[in-house]
Amino acid sequence: MRRGCAGLILAFGLATGAGAQQVGEVEQGTGAVLRGLDKVNASTADVAIASGASAEFGRLHIRLKECRYPAGDAAGDAYAFLIITDAMSGETLFSGWMLASSPALNPLEHPRYDIWVLRCKTE
Predict the structure, then answer these.
(1) Please, which residues have CB within 8 angstroms of residue 98's CB and are 6 or more apart in sequence?
(2) What is d(CA 67, CA 81) in angstroms, rounded to the nearest whole number?
(3) Residue-wise pLDDT tens digits, 30-67
(4) Can you tell me the distance from the alpha carbon of 121 to that of 43, in angstroms, rounded to the nearest whole number?
(5) Could you tell me what percentage of the chain is helix, strand and coil, using 3-state DSSP and rounding each to the nearest 5?
(6) What stretches of 39-91 adopt beta strand conformation (E)?
């Protein structure tokens, strides 16, 4: 019973912000650098995309809405909002935020291709 109460109190404290870390300022990049992997032939390529623009990688059409990063550290914990579609069928394969520091947290689920964020562009 005591363990259950202690766990409940800890969970409540974390949910209400008592144990939350303070989030620093973020800046918006002018684009992002992504890395693509073709799992069939084991080739990789870096893809630079400006915010609001699109690029192709194999059969994937990648659109970058925006890229954000901690103030003063564009390579640190960059995260980008991507919309990835199959260029042949037009089917949306991924839509959301992808994090450079944790690519497995919200990955593209595709049998042939893998895409992840490397960093934001700042120029």
Answers:
(1) 79, 80, 81, 82, 106, 107, 108, 115, 116, 117
(2) 6
(3) 999 999 999 999 999 999 999 999 999 999 999 999 99
(4) 23
(5) 10, 50, 40
(6) 43-50, 54-57, 60-70, 79-86
Q: What is the DSSP letter of 119?
A: E
Radius of gyration of the chain (CA): 18
User: Is the CA virtual torsion 15, 23, 27, 32 positive or negative?
Assistant: negative
By C-alpha distance, which of 36, 96, 85, 91 is closest to 60?
A: 85
Among the residues of the chain, which ranges form H helices? 2-15
pLDDT for 77 equals: 86
Quickly count: other Cβ atoms within 10 Å of residue 38's Cβ.
16
Could you state, in order of their start, the residue ranges of all structural domains in the chain? 25-121
DSSP 108: -
